[in-house]
Amino acid sequence: MPLAEKMAEEVPGALQPWYADDSASCGTALDNAKCLEFLIREGPKYGYHPVPAKSWYICKAEDEEDARLAFSSLGLQINFTNEGKRYLGGFIGSGEGKKIWLEEMVEKWVAAVETLAIVAEKYPQTAYVGFTISLQNEWQYVQRVVSDTASFFAPLEQVIRNKFIPALIGIAASEVDGELRSLLSHSVKKSGLAIRNPVDTAEHVHETSKAATSYLVRSMIDSNVEFDIKEHRSSATEECARARQKRLKREQELLDERSQRSHAVGRRDERNKQNGCWLTVIPLRVNGTDLSANEFRDNIRLRYNFAPLDMPQHCDGCGAKMTVEHALQCKVGGLVHARHDDVADEFRDMCGQALSFSKVEREPRIYSGVSQRNRAERGDANAADGSNPQNNNTAANNITEERGDAGCQGFWNHRRMAVFDVRITDTDSRSNRNKDPDKILAQHEKEKKNKYLRPCLEQRRDFTPLVYSVDGLAGREARAAEKRLAYHLSAKWKKDYPTMVHYVKVRMALSVVKANSLLIRGSRERQRPRRPYISDRFAMYDWQTWSEW
Predict the structure, then answer these.
(1) More confident call, 239 vs 382
(2) CA 510 from chain center: how many Å?
(3) Is the pTM for the entire model greater than 0.90?
């Protein structure tokens, strides 16, 4: 920064903000001309080469003549305007010039949202991520640096509400009422989709920007305030956190109002606040985070209590009337088991990556004493404690071949096996509709632990139930296991712990929600053997014998 410091010493009367290699000055016409002349004279020594023909001077119409004389006296030929000009993504100038510039920008954004609405019909996840992560941040930046912009964004909000949201969710524009639009503008942690209303955000983000940069501005205009980067960062962080808390409070007020009107809606909102982490990832096929159009749209519609589009009328497995509740629970055809296996496979895969695949066991036995059971069935006196055959039969009945879904050596404790068992339940089923989702998951965890915890502890093994709802909500024990798995991954991959916690949560949630479309749309009809000439490996030996003949 030697160049900027020397210019401040030579022309102290002008305010001189810098952003990277973009320089500006604010003061009298003569001081501004001296700043440009200094840069042309001293800048090449530091590799800085200003071009006067690309420079603009913004002033009022009545001051333009004096400004031209000031620059001409120093032999400088630059551009002059009294309407205004774009500066660092914002605008400096008259109100009429700002109006023209903003209308042009909003027109471009309207066209971009219309294009995303077309994309959303076939690729809703890609369109959603492009909107929330990229596009809407463009106009929010303008709202931060330019004041009084809310009224200019009305056409943009109209196209978001009437075209983009209907295409994304698969509903008519008339179904997007005021309450639904407000809910969708919430953050994902507050049961929304983070599709912000640009008219509402304009004032809030601008006030936040002013507060966050107040120390920086004060240090520039007050010579008695020495700039301290740590103080600036602390001030900006505090103001941003304060603004975030205010926004979350406003969003929570709407959720409280909805909950007072309907307890069922309130329970759904509370559940949606905890199970939306899969919405925050970028779709990448190589990472397995991409969802098909049906997978993404089905889960979005279920999130907001809309029935999936084009759902079959009847179950092709059992013939019952097809509803969302029936589709997520019907075991005919093995789709429920496929969902269960997918979740278990995902957890085993991450355990192998975190520790070692040699330490991960597929479907470990809950009771390892199978040979003991066989001896007990034969009536062997050594099969169980005591010589009474009746005791032996009792021991045999208590020892079964039940298995967990995953076993991992050294997961909770060093050199100790941890057994995990997966269960997925529908918290919206008829028997659960009046219950708290967290209590439902806790009940299933208790059932698993009552059944398997004691046998595992007797063998010096840990047991953890992995209970999830059909929309990806994790139980208490599952959340603890996810955090422990994130700890192992962060240590192995040298990544920070919060990032790995989010990574594990997203992968487990995606494994659950991806299966919902399979259960709703997948076929439950299975091929049955017609004439099983060869039905086992022993018959295959005969086949080989016949071939040799």
Answers:
(1) 239
(2) 11
(3) no
